[in-house]
């Protein structure tokens, strides 16, 4: 199963990367926004929703450290890890990268967490995508299992309420998916949520 997702950033968007460019401390890599960053944000969003009881029909081990995931799966692999993968298992979901056309460079000030004041000599430059840019990426599931499609769509639904990158707010919607016509979650992803 394959479908397109349209993403619009509602705030400036930064995906952290150590830059090869000397004048930028936090930059984008050559891929723009890697599919792995989007996939990781989807995984985090659905794991949070399951942990907080917003989604009850799927399971999540809630672990991120490889040794903890392996330990949690001794009694069986959770649904989230079946979809997204876990150590030595790729999962059945692929997400394409997003090419970036417009990037701005901002100068920022590093803030001390304990006092909420600026750190001395701590200016840094960051590449950001300005708000209201539209992107498209592709999601591919290597299964015909409607249950896994539902989990994928739920992860996109909750990603709208989560964040992408370093705190970026986004909205997204999907194109029509012909497979699994009875899935109700599809109707909630057909239009932008934040208009």
Number of helices: 5
**Computed Rg:** 18 Å
The proportion of strand residues reads 15-25%
Q: Domains counted in the coordinates: how many?
A: 1
Largest sheet: 4 strands, antiparallel
Account of the protein in words:
This protein has 195 residues and is α+β, with helices and mostly antiparallel strands. It has one domain (2-188). It has helices spanning 35-51, 66-72, 79-84, 146-159, 185-188, and strands at residues 2-9, 93-95, 104-111, 118-128, 134-141, 170-174. Strands 2-5-1-6 form a four-stranded antiparallel beta sheet. Strands 3-4 form a two-stranded antiparallel sheet. β3 and β4 (118-128) form a beta hairpin. α1 (35-51) packs across α4.
List the keywords.
four-stranded antiparallel beta sheet; 22% strand; single chain; 6 strands; 195 residues; alpha+beta
Task: Give a short summary of the structure.
The protein is α+β, with helices and mostly antiparallel strands and 195 residues long.
